[in-house]
Amino acid sequence: MTYRYVGKSITRVDAVAKVTGTAIFPGDRIYEDALWMKVLFAGRPHARILSIDTSEAEALPGVVAVLTARDVPVNEYGLQFPDQPVLCGLGSSKPGADVVRFVGDQVALVIAETEKIATQACERIRIEWQNLPVLSDPLQAREPGALPLHPHQPHNIACELHLAKGDVDRAWSQCDLVIEETYRTPPQEHAYLQPEAGSAYVDDQGRITVHVAGQWAWEDQRQIAHALNMPAERIRVIYDAIGGAFGGREDMSVQIILALAAWRLSERGIRRPVKVIWSRTESILGHCKRHPMIIHAKWGAKRDGTLVAAEVEVVSDAGAYMYTSNKVLGNAVLTCMGSYKIPNVRVAGYAVYTNNLPSGAFRGFGAPQGIFAAESQMNRLAAALGMNPVEIRMKNLLDDGDPAAFGTPLPGPVGLKRVTEAVARAAGWYESRDEHPAAHGRSDGIKKRGRGIATGFKNIGFSFGYQENSWAKVVLEGETEIERATVFIAGADVGQGHHTAVAQIAAEVLNLPLERIALVVSDTAVTQSSGSASASRLTYMAGNAVKGAAERALAKWQDEERPAAAEFTYLAPKTEPFPGEEGTPFKPNFAYGYVAQSVELEVDTETGLIHILRVVSAHDVGKAVNPQQVVGQVEGGVVQAYGYAILENFQTRDGYVLTPTLSTYLIPGVLDIPDEVETIIVENPDPEGPYGVRGMAEMPYLCIAPAVVAAVHDATGVWFNEFPLTPERVLRGLGAL
Strand ranges (DSSP E) for 139-284? Predict the structure, then answer.
């Protein structure tokens, strides 16, 4: 169906402001009487604080206040579980708050007239430490007798999940081929352009108002209110322009401490704004990373490539605190079976506390790790059986009505075969070597070329029993015709174009030019919750909410109500948590997105450098609200996944970070990116999505790493079970070092 606004490549609503530099990011706010805040980080991975002396810091001219754990009413927070102190130290009712568990734990806050003075004062805070043993290996941390890192979890297991179907033990005898491997996936730094920053003050109504960048304003408000022991209505959270997130802004960074500083100063009669901007190093040390995982996989198949059984263990390094480790582990457990019909499966998943930086949400949310193991297994099976990697996938891919590893079918229609077929044809997988000379084992001596393919899926929206919901409000104004429509929506635009998409949906419902659509966004004082900018969910969830509110407001307008205002809360289909008993079928998600990707690359066998020549990426998006934005998401996701697979080498030792800057932790630059990225948009409408929308922001990330590894094997004959494929790792794998 053709629409007037939905499905059109309309210029983003924030494009002009961002291009001209008039967009206000949290660090851009200027106040004449602002105070500066600096955070004293722990700087050590595991230690007990025996004493803190702030007197020398407080005596420094220009210092207004120094806050410690004693100043925090409820000294705990956490998105999934409140296991992290706001400030580590003495005098807190929180058990274990006197212990720091990673180098980025926050210990004290200095508020001063200038940032320089605040920095100098931090250096004058004297702390007596008792160093404690460091657990940096999740396999060792989960061993019986390992030192417990948290009072509430004596075995260091932050989360444990199990999944089973069929009879795995009996199934091995039915297999003609068994592949058993251990895979390791690395941590990854979010490296968003805008480091953590914000400001806070007490407004004229007595509310603590916090300007920050995040992914869920209402959740920020809830956690601030909890830590300050205040009613939520006393906290106002406003999101300014957001310079990237990728999951890294789901968890708290500066939100609570800014509110704490503004409130404690107001109690002393000082009602001045407080501002903070983290340096890049503070950002790298102070927020979470992608979960590193160790995945042991054993898969068996028939000679014709039919999958028979799979057994997998997933060990995820949660780091020092829970963050979203339970949810990420759930996604990894679901996706480590791949997108395939496997009658006999058994999975055990463990998220383990360590003294490494906390692991948290990152684009793909556990699926890149699980899919890397699953697709590596499929590519190894194909090679061992002498099968085309596309052929073995098409034989086993899930389709409408097929039960997945969790025992129930994926909500239809299932687009796995459509995206795989689309990529295979576009990338020449059905052609012979002579017909497709640019890849498939071609060699120019030192430089060898190869190609690889991978397929994946991931949930859209929150999972595992959470009742997904999203609120919106639409107000229509005018006399004889609608002159202006105001859409109130709390969803965060973290660069993905969410606000443009909901404006298009509102314009479509109201048949109104986009210039007449005004947006009021991400302000807890005037919007209710739309949920997080995560799980590729906002266009689906907030799109349904805006569509519903606009339809209701339009009906009122047609009944002569002026102005016409309507609210609507969309409730997604229910999901189910992991069952307590293995083998019980359940429905973990209500919608999915599907992706297939092919990579052609060149390996320099003298230097170990990998150069990606071409990526073909096909996505079942349901309906592309803005095709240009879909292409942008694909290209950005591919480049970010390229960094994960090849370049970004986050290094730690005994809990200390060895790559704390962008000069030691390299992210892709313009000369690193693939020569060509071809995007294929497949529109296979979701029956529940607005205009058929599914969601796709994470999907371009999912399959690049296994496709790269398969392409390197095609070029060199060498498999890699871990990455990034840095020159050193490649040369070692080739036997050149």
Answer: 157-165, 177-185, 197-202, 208-212, 235-239, 274-277
* Beta-bridge partner residues of 45: none
Beta strands 293-301 and 344-353, pairing class: unpaired
β-pair partners for 181: 297
**Paired sense of beta strands 592-604 and 610-620, if any:** antiparallel
Structural domain contains residue 208: no
Judge contact between 247 and 363, C-beta under 8 A: yes
Task: Kindly report the pTM of this predicted structure.
Answer: 0.97
Query: What does the pLDDT look like over 357-395, one tens digit per residue?
Result: 999 999 999 999 999 999 999 999 999 999 999 999 999
Dihedral, 422, 423, 429, 430 alpha carbons, nearest 10: 0
Is residue 91, in this structure, part of any structural domain at all?
A: yes
Q: Angle at CA 499, nearest 5°, toward 495 and 504?
A: 130
What are phi and psi for residue 325, nearest 5 degrees?
-60, -35
Average pLDDT across the chain, whole number: 96
Joined together, the tokens standing for residue 515 give 């210039």
Range of the domain at 592: 293-462+580-733
Cis geometry, peptide bond prior to residue 724 (ω within 30 degrees of 0): yes
pLDDT of 443 reads 65
Domains in the chain: how many in total? 2
Residues 6 or more apart in contact with residue 688 via CB below 8 angstroms: 411, 540, 544, 572, 573, 590, 591
Give the whole-angstrom CA distance, residue 101 versus residue 98.
Answer: 10
Q: What is the CATH number of the domain that holds 680?
A: 3.30.365.10
Last-in-domain residue among 132, 163, 193: 132
- CB neighbour list of residue 32: distance below 8 Å, 6 or more residues apart: none
